[in-house]
Design goal:
Rossmann fold; 7 helices; 42% helix; globular
Length: 254
């Protein structure tokens, strides 16, 4: 009776040791894999890379100096693109993203600004369907999708108070809904950036956008695209939200 007990105990002990060894190996492999990778950015002009001499900033690229060693940004965002048009053509941003994607990578997807434009309109049902496809492809590559709503516009009323962008809120809600349905982490950049502008006066808020500039020889006031200062502020808001909520993507930032 005692021998049987001892034998069983030894067998169980060995099994436990093997289990702990396997678990440790898996954990170590995951740890090593997480030490390096790509942060891939897929989206529109507010996310797209910019030249140093340009006044426009990329809130995605602005997070580069916060990445841990071994991580790098792969920015395939393109100005003027919708959740559909980013996929068009042979050498599209979306194709470049897929070519770069590796297991363990994180992929930020942000659309909803151009999708609302009359000439490019992607209605809400189709918008959500396309986002769901993105999540499926990203996961098939072993990467992790992170959906973001579009950053808000720097619009102020005659009373000098910030005016929330209803169009971007509409697509933000759609992004959140499909993120919940697909169990994808979601960061509400529309709300985060709106909160920042809510707390600033008109001058300080508009300083976060390109503001007065010239396009095709005409003077314009750009309240759509963040300035480099605005991009930096918005990138920090993304990191803070991800860190506060302990989202997996927070682990790649220092």
């Amino acid at each position: 009776m005692n021998r049987t007990y001892l034998k069983t105990k030894t067998s169980t002990s060995r099994h436990g040791a093997v289990h702990m060894l396997v678990t440790g190996i898996v954990a170590l492999a995951m740890s090593v894999a997480a030490e390096a990778g790509n942060l891939i950015l897929v989206g529109d002009s507010t996310l797209a890379s910019r030249k140093p001499e340009q006044r426009i900033g990329s809130w995605g690229d602005s997070m580069g100096d916060r990445l841990k060693d071994g991580w790098k940004i792969v920015n395939v965002a393109i100005g003027g693109r919708t959740v559909k048009s980013i996929q068009n053509g042979k050498n599209t941003g979306w194709q470049k993203a897929q070519d770069a994607m590796q297991s363990g990578d994180f992929v930020i997807v942000q659309f909803g600004i151009n999708d609302a434009a009359k000439k490019k309109l992607v209605d809400i049902p189709e918008f959500k369907e396309e986002l769901a496809k993105f999540a499926k492809v990203i996961r098939s590559k072993g990467a992790t999708p992170v959906f973001c709503s579009p950053v808000t516009s720097g619009t102020y009323g005659k009373d000098g108070k910030f005016v929330r962008n209803k169009s971007r809120r509409k697509y933000a809600d759609a992004t959140r809904e499909i993120a919940e349905a697909e169990k994808v982490d979601y960061i509400d950049m529309t709300e985060l950036t709106s909160q920042i502008l809510d707390a600033l006066d008109k001058q300080a808020g508009q300083d976060l956008y390109v503001g007065a500039s010239t396009k095709n020889g005409k003077s314009i006031f750009d309240t759509c695209h963040p300035s480099k200062a605005g991009a930096k502020r918005y990138g920090e808001a993304f990191i803070k939200d991800a860190t506060t909520r302990k989202l997996p993507i927070a682990s790649i930032f220092k």
